[in-house]
Amino acid sequence: MTSFRLDESQRLLQDTVRRFAREKVAPRAQAIDETAEYPQDMFDALKELGLFSIPFPEQYGGANSVLSACVAVEELGRICYNTAYLLIVQWVPFGAILAGGTEEQKQRFLPGLADGTLRSAISVTEPGAGSDVAGITTRAEKVAGGYKLNGSKFFATNSSIADFVIVAAKTDPTLRHSGVSVFILEKGIEGFEIGPSERKLGSRGVPSSPIYLSDCFVPEANRLGPEGEGFALVMEAFNKSRAIIGARGVGLAQGALDLATDYAREREAFGQGVASFQGVQWMLADMATKIEAARLLVYKAAAEADAGVKGKELAPIAAMAKLFATDIAMEVATDAVQLFGCSGISKDNRIEQYFRDAKVLQIIEGTNQIQRNIIGKHVVKTY
Ligand SMILES: Cc1cc2nc3c(=O)[nH]c(=O)nc-3n(C[C@H](O)[C@H](O)[C@H](O)COP(=O)(O)OP(=O)(O)OC[C@H]3O[C@@H](n4cnc5c(N)ncnc54)[C@H](O)[C@@H]3O)c2cc1C
Fold first, then answer.
1. What is the pTM of this model?
2. Exposed site from 28, 78, 150, 342, fewest CB < 10 Å?
């Protein structure tokens, strides 16, 4: 990356999404969180704007750019965590299919994901195994023409809405990482049941649900990538999407700073605006500086992905971007609530939602301890 400046098309995208977020998304953001109802209207609007295709290769009508995807997510996340999530939840399965799909699978699923006519989800986590992906116990047993899947998953975000779900299961339960394979489960197949949505602290607008698999037959043509290579495939998809999760952290933090700054300008104490106190200005200064640093790290990780860096080379910088930007989101949201005083605790002010959603960011797509493990291993080996 030679420059940290966005190019003209990225600046145009930023302006368009910023305007859309302020005019169309902002009036809906609080209700989406409060009701925890899937925002179909927001999905339709994103589809109409053509935003789903952004990170896709040109042949699917996309800009083939993780950096552009980060820019869009940042602007949406500044206003509404859940609307930003509608893009990301579509992009992780895209990454998995792009990384490991056959030409037939790419033709079958990618155009629909790119234009929003298909919706998807990815389901790895189980009640007994989250961080330890190689410890999953859902079983995929080889049978004539395909596989029979048995087991249960949970926290599969968007699975109740999705047309298909990418599911990780063990083809060889005696092995750890190399026993994991990945399958595409299409809606309506027998033995594939989605349970009731989790009742969540944050990230409430996009449902996360358990999945129950009971003698669920999946044809061989729906195995994604070679048998036993599912772990690497899922990790590659996560490596590519981690900068985008980081961008959601940057957007969330920026939105929290926007709200806190407006409040501090208006609120009076000791006969003056609280924004005039040096103690308050220093807090705002630290928040703004941390956000700028996180943004640069996210853009750098995205630019690396766009330059074709992948696998073990991309993993540490992608993990740094996710870790740093989402920890900053939590810190900034916490300080923003502090600056609101008691009003920050009230459900009548949106700042408390930023605080709840920030916590989710430190857990999803590999907790921030797991990101530190990835970075730590890299440091020990290379520095
Ligand atoms: C809102 C939301 C949406 C989600 N959506 C999806 C989804 O769409 N698909 C999906 O598959 N999953 C999804 N998840 C699950 C998410 O990926 C897991 O929560 C995450 O990977 C952590 O797993 P766990 O919750 O089982 O925690 P555990 O693995 O049980 O960990 C518990 C604690 O121990 C720590 N820990 C564990 N191992 C280590 C270690 N080696 N070193 C240091 N610390 C460690 C963790 O960081 C954590 O703090 C979602 C989660 C949330 C909250």
1. 0.97
2. 342
